[in-house]
Amino acid sequence: METAETPGRPHPLVILAAAVAAAAVATFVLPGGQYQRVDMNGRLVAVAGSFRSVPRQPQGLAALALAPFNGLLEAADVIALLFILGGALAVVKETGALSAGIRRAARLLKGREAVMVPALMALFALGGAVFGMYEGVLPLVGVVVPLAVAMGYDSIVGVSACYLAAALGFCGAFLNPFTLGVAQEAAGLPRFSGMGYRLVVWTVMVGTGIAYVMAYAARVKRDPKSSGAYESDEAIRRGLQADDPAPGAQAQGSDLTARHKAVLALLAAGLAVLPVGVVHHGWGVKELAGLSFALGAACGLVGIGTLGATAEAFVAGCRGMAAAALLVGVARGVRIMLDSGLVMDTILHGLAAAVSSFPKVVAVQVMFLAQCVVSMLIPPGAAQAAASMPVMAPLADHLGVTRQTAVLAYQLGDGLTAFAVPWNGATLAALSLGLVPIWPWFKWAWKLQAVLVAVCMALLLWPTLAGWGPG
Questions:
Q1: What number of other Cβ atoms are within 10 A of residue 48's Cβ?
Q2: Do the beta carbons of residue 162 and residue 205 sit within 8 Å?
Q3: What angle do CA 422, 232, 140 make, to 5 degrees?
Q4: Is the N-terminal amide bond of 470 cis, ω within 30° of 0?
Q5: What is the pLDDT of residues 377-422, one digit of tens each?
Q6: How far is 69 from 74, CA to CA, in rounded Å?
Q7: Helix or strand run (H / E) with residue 243
Q8: pTM metric for this prediction
């Protein structure tokens, strides 16, 4: 898999290596500290008030050299999922169903392209809100980006339509068992309580993202050269032109055949089964990988016809995911360094102390900003909930803020910064898969980040002032 780079700018792997090295330096500077932890339904959660100072464990050159290996091991489940998803997607691409579907969709949406991007964003944001779609959306970047380019937009719009939308839905989740469920459990709240206002939060978050993306998309539509990815998108445009049938001809991949329709029907069935499995049967990464493998095999048999050709396509797809998987694994090195150096809990304790020094209206805002900082260090998901909520929930009691509000502050901060910091593995993987130059993306994303931070701070005002419960 090639990565679109801006000349003179560092490679994503260099950025991650620098972030891991900075975390190692922090273990020589920050004092050591630890919270006592107890098991809660298979997860270790911090015990409020149990923080104690301990000798720090500086992480030297040997630890730095081992960080990529340890990160890859820790992220093994997500990496395995990426390989299987990438292989399955390659099989589907080999059938020709995706390219035929993209061309059919582009023709049907001619003149109505502005409808497709918001619809896709709402769909992926729903996935993030309901069953925690985040890294699992990465292989779909390779489907959505060519569709966006075919509709006259660019790869930045394509990545936004799936990955960014899933991240926003993840932050504004109302049923996500991996973030909201774990956070409410750690805070002693009924699971998925506060649904009404959470739906408002999700709508505002996703609506803001859609409005921002569509304003940019309209500008690109008017002037394609205004795109920060115009030059790098040339490869995608050439690929789409190469697949176009000759004038007056009907190439095999130009229209949907019976086999194409059968493959797309299998994909639709898989997408329909996925949320049911996650919500009602507690599916996780392992089950998603199993479903993807089964779908890939079925699509190969229907659309390709032979096991050998299906296997070759699958292996090629796995090979194409290698760079993305490497980025996801190496990114875990930041948290591993801070944990191994016994300074991660010091950071959490310091942020909690900073929050406690403000009146409650300001404190909730600072709590949210603190969660944004934590999100830069801990990958979004259950790990951040288990680390921070047992500390923030009692702090909310002390401030006179409901625990439901504290959970919302955590939730909005969890992952909000992920798409706009250049050391987040999932973001770098998404940009690599979409062939998006990283620096034009971050220049664009940082502005959206500022808008969303302001929106989140506004969304926290009513819960703080109204005593939103249960508390």
A1: 18
A2: no
A3: 65
A4: yes
A5: 887 777 788 888 888 888 899 889 999 999 999 999 988 888 988 7
A6: 9
A7: helix 234-243
A8: 0.81
